[in-house]
Amino acid sequence: MLNNDIKYLTGVGAKRAEILFKELGISTFEDLLYTFPFRYIDRTKFYSISELAPDLPYIQLRGKIIRFQEVSYGKRQKRYIAYFSDGTGVIELVFFQGLKWVQEKLKAGVEYIVFGKPTVFNRKLNLVHPEVDAPQTDSQPLPSVLQGVYSSTEVLQNNGLGQRAFLRLQTNLANAVLDKITETLPGYLLRQYNLMPLREALFNIHFPQSAERLQQAQYRLKFEELLYLQLGLLRVRNKRKETSRGFIFNTVGEHFNACYRRLPFALTDAQKRVIKEIRGDMATGKQMNRLLQGDVGSGKTLVALLCMLIAADNGYQSCIMAPTEILAQQHFESIQDFLRGSAVNAGLLTGSTKKKERRALHEQLLDGSLHLLIGTHALIEDAVRFKNLGFVVIDEQHRFGVEQRARLWSKNEQPPHILVMTATPIPRTLAMTLYGDLDVSVIDELPPGRQPIKTVHFNDSQRLRVFGFMKEQIKAGRQIYVVYPLIKESEKMDFKNLEDGYESITRAFPLPEYVTAIVHGQMPAENKNFEMQRFVKGEAHIMVATSVIEVGVNVPNATVMVIESAERFGLSQLHQLRGRVGRGAEQSYCILMTGHKLSTETRKRMQLMVETNNGFKIAEADLQLRGPGDLEGTQQSGIAFHLRLTDLAKDSNLLEFTRNLAEKILEKDPHLSHENNERLAGRLKQLHHKTKDYSVIS
Ligand code: ADP
Ligand code: MG
Prior knowledge:
The protein is of the alpha/beta class. It is 40% helix and 18% strand. Residues 300-301, 552 line the site of magnesium ion (MG).
């Protein structure tokens, strides 16, 4: 029944079925049943017009339209006003779109229930595009105290699938399937955690019988959602741990020692600890899958290098994959520095590596004379084959999907050890959820002697002051980044921003006194490198760039990071950008430029940046403000998941709780074969039968 095609539900049919699928991804009864309201409104209360005020939330009125008026404004723009009265006063119902439909549907003198949010326009209260319904319709939704509001789209509304109609569908569905719903959690869990039975929960989430019942329903459904997610993830992990074999690297030899001895500084305690953790993994005989989190500049690359040298000491090759060419180049150069005078042979492979060089690299990889390969996703190409790849490092991992990683894994018969590095730290349980079965290491300490970066927030009208400051810094011999946002959907517009910015910078900082370089995403790699190198070598004073420089570049002499339209960046991104400065001995600055008018949330974000340099704090706040949406979408976890109710940022306690519970359940009953866990095993299979199984690789 639940698997029935949605078109067979009363009130749907072939055409609407198609629309439901296109707009909301609903193709079966079950899909609709699990499409939950995102908000609820109290439909028991009617306001009177005389008591309305602009700060009220959505409200409901009962009354009649007394007259209509069409107002033209601008070129060919019209708005349609219905004057609505309930005896205590008159309010305007305003429509800008679908005027024809409104004119046909609404009649004066008929009683309606209208629903909308009061706003003020021309110093009068309005309801813009309210829902208007006749008080009695033939099929009423099931009675409830709160009424669910479902996410909707214009297409849905234009095809007779607005809120009311959607509720009616949910009613028809509930009537058809609710008494056939079978429980999906074992009885012992329901009892132990006092959870609402599934049938009741599904009923109350669509048709809440009280605020309390609604809350219990939401809790039960979230609990289930997270428990199954964790069970799924842990089973993938366990399966891998049972079946995987990993290289054993138990020698620490000359390659490691030579580099270690020559380091111009001591490792931080955190770096030492992480290397120890990784060495522990390398000794178990299981394949390592470890996530290394550490703030920008915390020295992750060096940790990775030292581990790759251990691989080399044991006769294995390593590679490190970076998300951009510039970053790969920089890794290569700094690694070459650390390796100077050693017998370790490292190579660089990117999209712009010449054919001849490329062929030479391929050969050295195959005969084993190349120990370390550094590159971009050019490394994934089939032509790249290793003699014995033992250790893989992926830098700034959120840019690579799990499929891309899978292709690296398979470059060896026996999978190499994997170290994934990220400078976007997130809480541990969340990391384990988003990145599946990875173990997590943290570098929570910066190398000593770093001066904290001073961050200030200016608005556009203070630009001259900022230019003045930039000139002082350049006079003192420093270099400056000026960064513009790049948002995929409007690359053209951003490009214009960048060009305008570049122009105004070159006007304020003219040749020959000042040299300005420019880098953006649409440039050919060759030009990009050329411009970047001018800056790296100190030939250019200012680097105007889009956020392509977000990850990794290292120019210790750069002390000022100016971020234009800072309000358009996420917190973590701002923090990453800021991490480009403060790498040398001089005091560094980050200047956030924004417009004058900012939302409260944006103001908060800027304030937080000014207040703290702590990446964990910032990532945590970013998660609270934006949610983990992006991260979830990239499917790093090894099993695809889509959460309907849970907000990974807000429900972190429940996430932690269900993680522990899932661990306990699987500890006692690893294959869920116990009679008590029959429902868990069955439901888990149902949930994951469609998703690809990456357990072999992650
Ligand atoms: P991350 O990749 O974590 O952002 P990097 O590995 O690029 O950081 O390190 C930033 C800089 O700090 C590099 O120039 C690196 O050589 C230096 N560095 C790394 N570890 C130490 C340390 N223990 N003491 C001093 N400097 C260090
Ligand atoms: Mg780095």
